[in-house]
UniProtKB/TrEMBL annotation, chain A:
Major location (coarse): membrane
Record's bilayer topology term: Multi-pass membrane protein
Alphabetic keyword roster: Cell membrane, Membrane, Transmembrane, Transmembrane helix, Transport
Listed name of the protein: Peptide/nickel transport system permease protein
The family this protein is said to belong to: Belongs to the binding-protein-dependent transport system permease family.
One Pfam family this sequence matches: BPD_transp_1
The organism's place on the tree of life at top rank: Bacteria
TrEMBL record, chain B:
Residue ranges of the region described as Disordered: 28-47
InterPro entries: Peptide/Ni-bd, SBP_5, SBP_5_dom
Gene3D superfamilies from the UniProt entry: Dipeptide-binding Protein, Domain 3, Periplasmic binding protein-like II
Protein name: Peptide/nickel transport system substrate-binding protein
Taxonomic source organism: Actinacidiphila guanduensis
Length: 325, 599
């Protein structure tokens, strides 16, 4: 287990270093000058040169990148102020510490990702199991159709419709707001119901179809037929034998989907006006805010890598035949 | 005012043309201020709202407290919904109208705009100062006296040396976003930091530049006459800074208050909470009624949700407004089409004029530029951008919020707003151009993609082959800002920093300034225009100067045609009817927070 963790963490570190470097290069590959967004009406050469210096853009790109990486671990003294470790720089646009912005926004994205995942796993796997249990029934056919439909719609399409219907017209659900779990846990929960439900649609549609397919396949396996032949009850065989066999691939798919979950959270934030990493990423890109882009990218990538390692570790518990090495 | 970021902040998607009636601002309690727009019967053609000139107030006008708003009461919380974050809280860094208007709640300047909540009448008065200033030495020296009883949020008295320090601080290397008028006027140089690098090294500006003969008096000695000084003193950075509380660049996220409110909490891009500053004395303040106990400013509120919340006004949204964010274009027809919104609708001009620049470095023949002007389909473009609620058709370089505004239309654009392809063809023939091919550069945002198609079709009717070139929105100004850019036509906008064309014509039309990223995006370099700019700048009487600027603007349009002005931007949005005293700040193009109360 320890060797597994060390190997994966080292691999993750290499991935993150590469991501940070590529992001830096991509940013400077664009012809945009972030100083132009900071100079107001005063974009004369003197002011632009000063802004370049203040933003640290006056140094060669590899030096900028190296200073950035070192700053994450050792902190930096920037022209616009001291930046203690972990220093992800200061936002080009509002001089705020990127680390403080990330800490402020991460809970929203994480809440949405976890809430959305729980929602789509419960609904998707649940529907898939019932469909597999009742193969060929009306429920099975309706569930399959709904799943197909669900996979065809997008968050930014159904989100505004759902807000209009459930929040504006019917007033049943909160239109979505940022969670604050310490001071208002109930309000945080109600504020996430609609965003999580909408975000989960495209995912549970997929999981429903995948689960049904895997379960049907498992139910026709020899060990399942043997269990039935031995006189075991249908429910026991369904959950104890077939489901266990199907869980491994479902967890694998979930691991692969983690990146999409964070991507979905970003689109959901934009749709519902939540202040998470996605919202931050959009404003960073629109305002050519390199430190913010880098911060969001690294935190997002770290999260995905971390949860992937966690899921890999879960295999051992789900399927005892798998040994981590 | 920075039009660039205003564009990023405002989502102006097309929503179809709206009836003229939508341009009016009715308001049962007199709110909306100058939003009491009046139709000139011109349909979507030309300016349809009347704007009162901003006048200079007297010492009596500058005396606090602010006149009471009828029916107003103190208390409650006002919720301000803003589509974007506030990039700067440091008054010295504030330039965008959002930064300036929110800053009015916690910072005061030497002068400021006093707005009558009922009539919208706007007068420039002394804010911290007893009046708008006294000039001598032919307009080169301006003297201001501070009022009695002025205090910071910790009770420290406000003195003249703090005002001087506040101005000195504008020279600091980290103060790069705010206006630079005072720095340039005081040093007579655009490279003002070479003359004085700021107060960080312990150096102060000599008395020959800014003198503080006593605790209450500040004397500015400019290198040249500046009749606009009273207006420049209303910009956010023209106020005091308490040296002991100056945290340098970090002041941008936690400024110290001398206004009616102080910052209770701030989460960049997310929320700003303001509570009462107990040391603010209303008797010293002629412009801020400060009725609410608290301002809850919600930042980064997504559209169209922001507008829908104001429309639905459920719960706390009943006490909500959007100081800066205009209605989402998808919602303007909803608002215009339902009379229930009329009593809480504000529709008024902003200081921005939108133009299409013709690159004179590439399109040298004036007849060709006139042909482009005739072919330009301004009404279709207006429709594509959201129709009259987003802005009225305009043909002047100087917008209707500016003193002495004069509408002129030398090319009959308001008569034929859909374009005159026949006239364009005629001019091209006269110019000997048989197949004109132009490259139009635009930001790759949806609304500008629509406009590009509109232009291509309209120009084709005039025999002009328009090649469209989409540019990533973050790189747009970088690329069109280059003097040797490869484009013939591109869109920009400009807003007056105060209601005088001295902040419009010189920066955008002076050929001696042409350089990369200079706002003379058309690269106009007409010797007559350049000399006229110098002559008018030297006129001491602002009213006479305004008239001369208008004449020069008209001359430019008749003789040079560097730009195609097409729209005067408007603020158009509703507010919750739990609020009263909602007035409009014309110089900033935003709602004013100063007279608002919770019913």
């Amino acid at each position: 287990m320890l060797r597994f963790l060390v190997r994966r963490v080292l691999g993750a570190a290499v991935i993150l270093v590469l991501i940070s470097f590529v992001t830096y290069l991509l940013f400077f590959a664009l012809p945009s000058d972030p100083a132009l967004l900071s100079c107001g009406k005063n974009c004369n050469p003197q002011n632009l040169a000063l802004i370049h210096k203040n933003l640290g853009l006056d140094k060669p790109i590899p030096v900028q990148w190296w200073n950035y990486v070192v700053g994450i671990f050792a902190g930096r003294h920037l022209p616009l102020g001291n930046c203690p470790a972990p220093c992800f720089g200061l936002s080009f646009n509002n001089d705020t510490s990127v680390w403080s912005l990330l800490k402020d926004r991460y809970p929203t994205t994480l809440s949405l990702a976890i809430g959305g995942s729980v929602t789509f796993l419960v609904i998707g796997v649940g529907l898939g199991l019932i469909s597999a249990w009742k193969q060929g029934s009306v429920f099975d056919r309706v569930a399959s159709s709904i799943s197909l439909l669900g996979q065809s719609v997008q968050i930014y399409f159904i989100g505004p419709l759902a807000i209009y219907l459930f929040s504006v017209q019917l007033g049943w659900l909160d239109r979505g707001h940022d969670p604050d779990w310490t001071s208002d846990p109930v309000g945080s929960l109600t504020g996430l119901v609609l965003p999580c439900l909408i975000m989960s649609v495209i995912f549970w549609s997929n999981y429903s179809r995948q689960t049904r397919s895997l379960m049907v396949e498992q139910l026709s396996e020899e060990h399942v037929r043997t269990a039935r032949a031995k006189g075991m009850g249908s429910k026991y065989v369904f959950f104890r034998y077939a489901l266990r066999g199907a869980m491994g691939p479902i967890v694998t798919i979930f691991g692969i989907d983690l990146g999409s979950v964070f991507g979905g959270a970003i689109i959901t934030e934009a749709t519902f006006g939540l202040h998470g990493l996605g919202n931050l990423a959009v404003s960073a890109v629109l305002q050519s805010d390199l430190p913010l882009e880098m911060g969001v990218m690294l935190v997002g990538a770290t999260s995905i890598v971390f949860f992937n390692i966690l899921i890999d570790a879960c295999y051992a518990f789900i399927d005892p035949r798998i040994r981590l090495a | 005012m920075n039009k660039r970021r205003a564009y990023y902040a405002a989502a102006m998607l097309s929503a179809g043309a709206l009836a003229l009636s939508a341009c009016s601002s009715g308001n049962s309690d007199g709110g909306g201020g100058s939003g009491k727009s009046t139709s000139s019967g011109g349909g979507a053609n030309g300016a349809t709202a009347s704007v009162q000139s901003v006048t200079l107030g007297t010492a009596a006008d500058s005396t606090g407290p602010a006149p009471a708003v009828a029916g107003a009461k103190s208390g409650g919380t006002v919720h301000d919904l803003e589509a974007s974050g506030v990039n700067h809280l440091d008054p010295a860094q504030a330039y965008v109208n959002q930064e300036q208007v929110i800053g009015q709640l916690f910072s005061r300047q030497l002068t400021n705009y006093k707005i009558d909540a009922k009539t919208g009448k706007t007068v420039l008065v002394g804010d911290l100062a007893t009046d708008t200033g006294t000039s001598s030495d032919g307009g080169k020296t301006w003297t201001y006296h501070l009022k009695d009883g002025l205090k910071w949020q910790d009770g420290t008295p406000i003195t003249s040396d703090q005002v001087k320090y506040g101005i000195e601080r504008l020279f600091s290397s980290y103060e790069t976003a705010g206006p630079q008028y005072l720095q340039q006027w005081l040093t007579g140089s655009s490279s003002f930091r070479k003359v004085y690098p700021g107060p960080q090294g312990g150096k102060s500006l000599p008395d020959s530049v800014i003198a503080t003969p006593d605790d209450k008096t500040v004397v500015f000695h400019f290198k040249a006459p500046h009749s606009d000084a009273p207006y420049a003193m209303a910009l956010s950075g023209s106020g005091p800074i308490l040296k002991a509380k100056d945290t340098g660049p970090k002041y941008d996220t936690a400024p110290f208050s001398d206004g009616p409110y102080q910052i209770a909490s701030y989460q960049a891009g997310k929320a700003l909470e303001l509570v009462r500053n107990k040391n603010w004395d209303p008797k010293t303040d002629p412009i801020r009624n400060a009725y609410p106990d608290k301002w809850d400013i919600q930042l980064g509120v997504a559209q169209p949700g922001l507008t829908q919340r104001l429309e639905a006004q459920s719960g706390e949204d009943k006490d909500s407004l959007a100081l800066v964010a205009p209605a989402d274009p998808t919602q303007t027809s909803v608002i215009a089409g339902d009379p229930k919104y009329k009593s809480r609708l504000v529709s008024n001009y902003q200081p921005f004029v939108d133009v299409f620049n013709i690159n004179m470095t590439r399109v040298k023949d004036v007849k060709v530029r006139q042909a482009i002007m005739y072919a330009f389909p301004m009404q279709q473009v207006q429709t594509a951008l959201g129709g009259p609620p987003q802005g009225d058709l305009g043909t002047s370089l100087i917008g209707p919020t500016v003193q002495g505004f004069k509408s002129y239309d030398p090319y009959g654009k308001l008569t034929k707003p859909q374009g005159d392809p026949a006239k364009a063809k005629e001019l091209l023939k006269e110019a000997g151009v048989t197949h004109l091919k132009l490259t139009y550069a635009f930001s790759n945002q949806p609304r500008w993609v629509t406009v590009a198609t509109t232009l291509k079709n309209a120009f084709a009717k005039a025999g002009i082959d328009l090649q469209t070139k989409a540019i990533d929105s973050t790189a747009y100004y970088t690329l069109i800002g280059k003097v040797n850019n490869p484009y013939d036509l591109y869109r920009t906008g400009w807003g007056a920093d105060w209601p005088n064309a001295s902040t419009v014509i010189p920066p955008t039309q002076d050929g001696r300034l042409v350089a990369d990223n200079d706002p003379n995006y058309s690269h106009l370099n007409d010797p007559k225009v350049n000399s006229e700019i110098d002559r008018i700048n030297a006129i001491a009487d602002p009213t006479q100067a305004s008239s001369e600027w208008e004449k020069l603007a008209e001359y430019i349009m008749k003789n040079d045609v560097p730009e195609i002005p097409y729209e005067y931007d408007k603020y158009y949005n509703v507010y919750g009817d739990g609020l009263g005293g909602v007035s409009y700040n014309t110089p900033l193009g935003t709602l004013s927070p100063n007279t608002v109360f919770v019913k």
